[in-house]
């Protein structure tokens, strides 16, 4: 199933949680006893970014839940910048699970969704059975103020990449109003897919999503109580070798020589997909879906 056909097979609902209305796309799990998987999208994306994985896992007996995060799609977009901290977004997710009667879920994240997933596993590991994160690794110095020589998140990126780096540019002004030239579509993205995303962002704009970046320093500061906390959740990490995040200074040594494992003791492995870029769950949909399925089934009771 592709594009609108896959989207048409997905149920939609609005859930009141944490003081906002959250749009949730859902597939599978009609019987009520299925293990649930919570998918967290990145920027500038929507629940729709997970359409392939939702179809794949729903067909294999899982209940798939993919919310539009606050500020995106059909979920409420509070006007205040400070309403987009990681604490607000994790609060949304915990309240969503409460509203749906789910004690624990598998979490799958990408891009900003991966960052939120890391924070969720730090703040509320009791709600997460296991984690599959993609593209953005856990980076304590970027996510959490810790140590006497701690450097504020935006200062870190400014020093590393200069003021024109997108994270730095997003901090001030109105970058959401800037126009960008149209580019040819990659093979994994159809005109139909672009139309779906475009219609949503024409309605909402990009301010909600950019406000996540404008809270990076706030997140870093407020997460200080977790300065020494490890991510104590069984984890698999997936990244494409063409992803910008795989080429941060020192990141490959960190990923492959024990650095990430030290921060995430229950890390099973790091999977690098050759030739894949940033939007990995769409670029390599079947491969990523299989990796997710093969990992989370280790924590799912199997029939006798």
Automatic annotation (TrEMBL):
The keyword Nucleotidyltransferase does not apply. GO terms for molecular function: hydrolase activity. SUPFAM superfamilies: alpha/beta-Hydrolases (SSF53474). Residues 36-136 form the AB hydrolase-1 domain. InterPro entries: AB_hydrolase_1 (IPR000073), AB_hydrolase_fold (IPR029058), Epox_hydrolase-like (IPR000639). Keywords: Hydrolase. Gene3D superfamilies: alpha/beta hydrolase. Belongs to the AB hydrolase superfamily. Epoxide hydrolase family. This is AB hydrolase-1 domain-containing protein.
